[in-house]
Amino acid sequence: MTMNATENTSLIGNVMQESVDFRDIALCIYAYVTPVIVVIGLIGNFLSLIVFYSPTMKGLSASVYLSCLALADSSVLVFYVLSEWIRRGLPWLIRDIDIMILDVYGVCQAREYIAHLSRLIASWVIVAFTVERCCSVCYPLKSLQKNPKIVLCVLFIMCSIATVYTLFINESHSYGDFCVCSYREGYEYEHFIAESMFATLTFFLPFVIISVCNGMIVHSLYRRHVSSIRSKCNLHLRKDCISILFAISVFYVAFHIPYFVVWCRLRIITNPKGSPVRDNEFWDYWNGVLLICRLIYYLNYCLNFFLYCVTGSNFRSEMFRILLCKRQKYIITTTSGSTRSMHSFTRKRRMLSRTRTTSLKAS
Q: What is the reported pLDDT for 62?
């Protein structure tokens, strides 16, 4: 019996050591990789904005949606990813540092509001872009397309209203010289319901809409040839938009699923109606898993630029033209083309005037 007790104690000690080691490894990876994701994401989103605002692409509705997506992703990287790294990862890298500015009263509520708003907008911009492409492909002869700027303005207003709850349900808790930004005391159930609804609006509902719309696009393209609808030039642009859309949608789902699955598991365990009592080894292990899944989730906001480069030939050519400083050459070419068209129009007008003069003389 003593031998069994000793073996059990040794086994429990090994499990505790493994869970602690895994948590430390996950925290180390999180602390070092997160700043790289932020830097790459901000640079990629900045380059995307330059390309989408170029003269040859800014007139496309897809450029308006993808420009808004780049802005929303940049906001998420700054107000959510970077701020969480400062609170969680930076203290692990620099042991003596103590940054509480993000958790003080006022900054806590503002940070939570902007972080939730940015994530919600980033998800629904993809939904709006998917619905717009679905209408364009499935109903090409009907005027179902709306002005993208109006759609995005309405979307921003609705998302702003949907995330107002973060201003009232969060507060700064002081523990001596240490403060933490969390939900208000006595609002555990309200916080659980609000965050569950936010997860539904951020992932599950967009996932359903994106899947249905992409299925309709694939079905429509399978049934008929798109080339019979538009010219070859527009066809090339539309194929680029559809390729970019599919790439964004697939990676959106792939990067979201691991984090939200683990988040939902922990959220169900810690719900106010349940029994949240678990040992420390359980929380060390699952907090480590959540950190790794959080990194995968962060990739959704930094890799869109590379998806555009891989799937969009027009995006690639425009980006290379901008990077190689060929803007002046483009202007000269456009001007010469316009001049040739003007000369052709003038010659036709002169010939028509001569014809009329000859007919008048003959009469």
A: 86
How far CA 158 is from CA of 124, 162, 164, in Å, comes to 10, 6, 10
Q: Give the model's pLDDT for residue 223.
A: 72
Q: Which two tokens stand for residue 122?
A: 């980033």
Distances (CA, A) of 362 to 157, 273, 349: 70, 100, 20
Closest Cα partner for 249 from 304, 297, 184, 168?
Answer: 304
Phi first, then psi: give them for residue 175, nearest 5 degrees.
-130, 80
Residues 48/310, Cβ–Cβ less than 8 Å: no
**Per the structure block, which two tokens stand in for 286?**
């699952």
Q: How far apart are CA 239 and CA 312, in angstroms?
A: 9
Contact 125, 68 (CB under 8 A): yes
The closest alpha carbon to 60, from 308, 293, 326, 286, belongs to 308
- pLDDT (tens digit per residue) in 294-323: 999 999 999 999 999 888 888 888 888 887
pTM of the model: 0.78
